[in-house]
Amino acid sequence: MTDTISVNGQQHTLPSDPRTSLLDFLRHDLGLTGTKKGCDHGQCGACTVIVNGIRINSCLTLAAMHDGDEVTTIEGLGTPDNPSALQKAFLEHDGFQCGYCTPGQICSATAMLQEIANNWPSDASESLEGEMAATGEEIRERMSGNLCRCGAYANIVAAISEVAEESA
Amino acid sequence: MTVHFKQDTPDDSNRLDGMKQGVLGKSIRRVEGMAKVTGTAPYSAEYPIADCAEGVLVTSTITRGKVVSIDKDAVLSMPGVLAVIDDPAMTTRAAQGTADEAPQQEPGTVCYWGQPIALVVAETFEQARDAAKHLPINYREDPSAPLDPQAVEAEEQEDETVRQGDLDHAMATAAHSVDVTYTTKGHASAAMEPHASIAQWDGDKLTVYASLQMLNYNISELADALGMEEENVRLVSRFVGGGFGSKLGVSEDVVAAAIASKEVGRPVRVVMSRQQVFQCVMRRSETTQHLRLAADENGKLIGFGHHALVSNLPGETFAEPVLQSSHFLYGGENRDLMLEVARIHRMTAGSVRAPGEAVGMPALEGAMDVLAEKAGIDPVELRLKNIPEEDPEEGLPFSSHKLAECLRQGADAFGWDSGPRSPRHTCEGEWWVGTGMASAARVHNIAEAKSRVTLKADGSAVVETDMTDIGTGTYTILAQLAGEMLGLEPAQVLVELGDTKNPRGPGSGGSWGAASIGSAVYIACKAVREELGQRLGVGETELELKDGKAASGESLVSLLDGNDLSREGHYEPGDIKDDFTASGFGAFFAQVRVNRFTGETRVDRMLGAFGFGRVLNHKTARSQCLGGITWSIGVALTEALEFDPRDGHLVNCDLAEYHVPVHRDVPDLEVVLVEERDPAASPIQAKGIGELGMCGGAAAIANAIYNACGARIFDYPMTPDRVLAAMPD
Ligand code: FES
Ligand code: FES
């Protein structure tokens, strides 16, 4: 037990109220409001962050469960002066409208491309084994936990595909 | 200085195409986009206000009756709890769009299951949520709450009724006739950002950061609810995480936060839970629609009938305007249209993206497909044959009309096969594959709007208005518009939106935002140009501005001579509103696969072609169309509000149970923008595009389902159970 959590490389003390979700801890206690709350029930993906390299819904987990963990939020992926490749691609392809689902989409896509690189299969994969590729159908399946009510899906997939191709 | 322009006649001067900067209409990136992709754009719950307490709404678990008592003491002793508020000024419904006055108040009187009745305020969100869950409430129930729209006597909306000629006779004598009844389920806006407010008092001055679409109206609604003067109220909505109608009117969180903040003497934040957003803001009414089409042997309509039944709470003025485009889309001299409202105690019905056409068009365009089949005419051809010369009811000219172009260009781009059509022509493995199409129409709305444009001494510009950008692209198109007029790149134009300290815009709703506020900015820019022209000794119409310089070579900076130059534009639609029927038009084409064993439908590809006046930014306009088409997929296949028949409560009140389209439901979509200038739509010759993209699209999918597998379905959404039940053996 260290009672600390690393967020975007900075150490923070875990909250004293055990009811505090990781999402509320980030948004409220740390003021990292880039991570969004769309449903608080694991149904929309707006709260997606990366914990120890894996994407999770931060509303579905309590902050207290992340003793010693390393969390990356949208603020840790890039800044207006130094955006990540996916952040730039979303901007270029207009992969958003209202922008509320966007940090979740970008965090999710960042980790999702790594999952493909690690050859983890999905429902859209032809086989459970072997090389996985970032096809449109794979991206759509793997991103289906991130809802976008503005309906920017076609542009989001275009943005992710571009980054996947560049890094392939 | 304010310049007022009331538009009584079409504006053919087409000034914008003569400007030199060349940025309007271009496909440029959103100017606020970097803030959104990096998570640095603040939405309403996210302002770092010191010492902010947290409020959680408590909602009713009865349908109709009175709150007899609330045992506040039971929770006031819980850790961190500051107050339990049940002030009679709290609002119990969201205001309808453009209401301009407080919605229903008095939380002690319950009219629907899920209605807010109290607010618990505590130091932290966790404490407030816990206390809200444990607040004991005693009710006196009124058991007489009608819940079924089919079981009550409906009220006719008389201004919607049209009776011309003799439709019964036309139906009886027509070469081809169609008489069908469609149903559609209720829909939720389900904007991704839940409604949220932070209220803060400074003496008798109130500021609320809220997630709202129409600040110009919301400020009156809030002031009225609190019995305050508007000048003591400020609303801020710089970033809105989607609205789709649900944030048109002031919502319950806004008024509750304001009252609570006054009571506890600290800022208070109230964020609705996702379930509360579903249950106490707005639903789109379910509809039952009776369509009658009578055509001669060539497929030309001689009779047109459309009756619709919708529902709402007693006392609500809004009735889903199902017939809106039916009044003018197709000809037919014998007409019979009627809209009725059933008064029931389900939650408030109000605007959800494209109120009216979103459900009226899928029914009408489904019926048109039935007619095309009966008459043996290609569905595209049938629509082309029935485009009226003028409004078939009012006799008014159309401001512009691009339906034919959209049908032709859309069919071309999609590769539409106009040969004979019969179901089950293609089978691939387990899947029947077919195509379908539908027309799109959405009335053009426009409203009064004000904006200030300032040319700064350093040669940059600022545009100010309380208009909102709910994802529609307002920040960007106004930067482009002002840049075009003033000879600046959009990056040199700072657009300040979403604050009632600025001149009042129309708000975002009914797709009227861009054309209305754009016209105010256009008028302000023209006034700035006039002044610049005078300084240069040329008329405004001769003035050429590009890259911060006049054609003569003089720079804006030197013309301004160290001073700012500011003008306010005030646009008001005049006679053009009454002299024309104005609408956006379009066409949808879809290819679907239907599983022959499970009845599941997948959309393989979909295309929309749209004509909606001047395109202000190709990128953001296309995105609006993509969003609309995506919603069409939801309407066609998955979206349905389900109400408990015993107490009328909305059962599927979250994003797991109410099925909005997800990534894998949406294929590559194609959008064709059919450019036009509509001089009678607005001074900038633009119409709206936020809603047109979903007005009819569901029918293209429904018609494709029929073409694929032979299941002709009259109930939306077309879920697998319904498809299977309708599929021929
Ligand atoms: S807020 Fe966590 S999934 Fe919706
Ligand atoms: S951009 Fe608005 S919900 Fe995705």
From TrEMBL, chain A:
Gene3D superfamilies recorded = 3.10.20.30, [2Fe-2S]-binding domain (1.10.150.120)
Sorted UniProt keywords: 2Fe-2S, Iron, Iron-sulfur, Metal-binding, Oxidoreductase
Q: Does the keyword Iron apply?
A: yes
What's the source species' lineage?
Bacteria, Pseudomonadati, Pseudomonadota, Alphaproteobacteria, Sphingomonadales
The protein's superkingdom reads Bacteria
Domain 2Fe-2S ferredoxin-type residues, every copy: 1-77
* Name recorded for this polypeptide: Xanthine dehydrogenase YagT iron-sulfur-binding subunit
Species the sequence originates in: Qipengyuania nanhaisediminis
| PANTHER family reported in the protein's UniProt record | ALDEHYDE OXIDOREDUCTASE IRON-SULFUR-BINDING SUBUNIT PAOA, OXIDOREDUCTASE, IRON-SULPHUR BINDING SUBUNIT-RELATED-RELATED
Spell out the Pfam families in the cross-references: Fer2 (PF00111), Fer2_2 (PF01799)
GO CC annotations on file: periplasmic space
A GO MF annotation of the entry reads: oxidoreductase activity, acting on the aldehyde or oxo group of donors
From TrEMBL, chain B:
What Pfam family is a match for this entry?
MoCoBD_1
Name of this chain's protein: Xanthine dehydrogenase YagR molybdenum-binding subunit
Q: Has the keyword Ribosomal protein been applied to this entry?
A: no
Q: Which GO terms describe its molecular function?
A: iron ion binding; oxidoreductase activity
Species the sequence originates in: Qipengyuania nanhaisediminis
Where on the tree of life does the source sit, at the highest rank?
A: Bacteria
Q: Any idea where the Aldehyde oxidase/xanthine dehydrogenase a/b hammerhead domain is?
A: 38-143
Presence of keyword Oxidoreductase = yes
Q: Which SUPFAM superfamilies match?
A: CO dehydrogenase molybdoprotein N-domain-like, Molybdenum cofactor-binding domain
Write the record's keywords in alphabetical order, separated by commas: Molybdenum, Oxidoreductase
Q: Where is this region: Disordered?
A: 139-158
